[in-house]
Structure formats: C-alpha cells, structure tokens
C-alpha cells in the first residue's frame, strides 16, 4: 500500500522508484494484494485526473508482469474500467481502452470476452442513461 501511495502522491523520483519496485515485484506480491488495494483507489470519487493517470500506469505495468495470473481479477478490473469508457475527458476514455487492451493481452481475449459479455448489459444501461441525460458524473 505504501508503494501505491508513493506512486499516487509522491514526488517524481519517489513515483519512479515505487513504480519500478511494484512492477519488478508484481509476481512476488501477487495479484490479490495489488488489485485489492488499487481498485478501490481507482473508484475513489476524489481521484484527480493526474492521480488516475498514475494508477492506470501502475495497472498497465502490473498486468504486463502478472500475465495470466490476473484471470480471477478480470471481472473486477473491467467493472472499475467501465466508467472510464464513458468519461467526458478524451484521455480518460483512452486510458480505459488501454487497460482493456492490456487486460486482453494478459488474461487472454477469451477470459476478458466472457467477463465483458456479463458486463455488456450493465454497460448498455449506463450508456442509455448517459445519452438520455439521467446519469451525471461528478468530478
């Protein structure tokens, strides 16, 4: 958790060393401890764009290192990434697509596709709400 907070709130040299340490030791830490800490941080309503960008960077690097060990976490990662796909900010949407792309590479497209199918109906409901103006995002 300290490493994640250093990435999120630290100075640039602290961020760099914490990110390197996290990515180097990702397989040693395992997906459980990493994702159980980072996914709630990603869902925080007080998260600023810069902090979100840094956490997306952590997720991307950890996904690359963990490879197929992320399969049990695919559903939760997709659930956290889903709001990014409808974000008003262009870069937020790009980061959401980037996470999904890297998740497919790590877990295999089949695993992400199965989990994505279960989230598809939820995404359609959210998209309908956004287009009709019922859902508003507060930043």
Describe this structure in words.
The protein is mostly helical and 139 residues long. The chain has one domain. Helix content is 78%, strand content 0%. It has eight helices and no strands. The chain is globular and about 35 Å long. The C terminus is likely disordered.
Produce the secondary structure layout.
Blueprint: H1 2-9, H2 12-24, H3 26-29, H4 31-42, H5 49-66, H6 74-85, H7 90-107, H8 109-132
Helix pairs in contact: 1-2, 1-5, 2-5, 4-5, 5-7, 6-7, 6-8, 7-8
Q: For the CA atoms, what is the radius of gyration?
A: 15 Å
| Residue runs with pLDDT of under 50 for 5 or more positions | 134-139
Global outline: globular
Order of helices and strands: HHHHHHHH
Oligomer: single chain
Question: How many separate domains?
Answer: 1
Mean pLDDT figure: 82
Helix count, per DSSP? Answer: 8
Q: Report the sheet with the most strands, covering strand number, pairing sense and barrel closure.
A: none
Give the CA-CA distance, first to last residue: 24 Å
Total number of strands = 0
Spell out the key features of this protein.
globular; 8 helices; single chain; 139 residues; mainly alpha; disordered C terminus; 78% helix
Give the structure's gist in a few sentences.
The chain has eight helices and no strands. It is mostly helical. It has one domain.
């Amino acid at each position: 958790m300290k490493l994640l907070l250093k990435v999120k709130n630290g100075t640039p040299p602290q961020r760099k060393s914490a990110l390197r340490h996290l990515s180097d030791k990702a397989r040693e830490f395992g997906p459980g401890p990493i994702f159980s800490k980072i996914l709630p941080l990603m869902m925080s309503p007080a998260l600023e764009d810069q902090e979100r960008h840094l956490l997306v960077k952590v997720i991307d690097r950890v996904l690359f290192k963990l490879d197929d060990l992320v399969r049990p976490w695919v559903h939760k990662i997709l659930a956290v990434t889903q709001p990014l796909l409808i974000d008003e900010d262009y870069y937020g949407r790009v980061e959401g697509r980037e996470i999904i792309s890297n998740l497919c590479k790590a877990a295999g497209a089949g695993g992400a596709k199965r989990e994505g199918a279960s989230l598809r109906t939820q995404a359609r409901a959210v998209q309908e709400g956004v287009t009709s103006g019922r859902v508003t995002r507060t930043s």
